[in-house]
Amino acid sequence: MIREVLVGVAWRVAPQRSSGIAAGSVPVSPFASIWRLDMIKRFLARFPNVRFSQAYGLTESTGGVFRAFGPEESQRLGSTGRLMAGCEAKIVDPSTGIALHPCEQGELWVRGPTIMKGYIGDEEATSAILNSEGWLKTGDLCYIDNNGFLFVVDRLKELIKYKGYQVPPAELEHLLQMHNDIIEAAVIPYPDDEAGEVPMAFIVRKPNSTLQEAEIMELVAKQVASYRRIRRVSFVDSIPKNSTGKIMRKDLMKLAMIKTNSKL
To answer: Which residues of 21-60 are buried (b: 16+ CB within 10 A; e: fewer)?
Structure first.
C-alpha cells in the first residue's frame, strides 16, 4: 500500500484517515532493502503524522513474536521491534545450533506458548522445523542488536553459495535498485561448475534505457567483495511476485535455464 500511495494510486483512500501503518510481510531492514527504506522515508515525509511500524511473525508462530511498540520504537526504521511478552528468541549458527552474540547474523529461533505443535500428518516436516526443546527454526537470517531490536536480513534458503561463501541476494538487489535506470531487480543463484552457484540478476529497466550488462556488473563490483559480484544479467519486462510482494525466485530460476538452453 505504501508504494501505491507514493505513486498516487491511493491518495484518496489511505493516510489521510490513518494514524498508523504496520508492516510484517516483507523485510525493511538496512541490509534487506535500501530501496524500501528510501520508499518509507518518502512516505513519512509526505505523511508526517502517520506512524509506520514493523512486526515479525510466522504462520507457525500463530501471531507476532517481535513488534515495534510506540513512537520511539517505530522510529527505528529497518527493525521489526523487540521481543513480545511470553516469547523467547535467539540467533544461532544454522550449521551448529550454537547461540551467537548480539549483532551477529544467524538463523532466528523462537519459542513460546503461541508456537504451533506441528504440521498435521507430517512428522518429518515438523521435526525439521521444531526441535525437542520447542524451538521453532524460522529459516530467516537475522540479527538482534545490543538493544534487543530484531533485523531481518534474508531467507537462509535463498542465500547463494559461491565457493563456500554465502551471498544474500537481497543485498545485491537493493544495490541494483538504487540505480536511476533500474525499476526492479531480482538476484538468484545460477549453477556454475567451478563456484557451485553464482549471482545472476534479472533487471527491469526504465523505458528507453540503454543500460547494458557490463555496466550493471561493474556497478555492483565497485561496492561489494569479489565473491558477491553479479556474474550474469538478464533483462526482463517484470519480476514475478506472489500476492504478498515476495519475489518468486523459483520462476526466475526456471526462466534462467530456459534462456540458457535456448542459446545452445
So the answer is: bebbeebbbebbbbbbbebbeebbeebeebbbbbbbbbeb
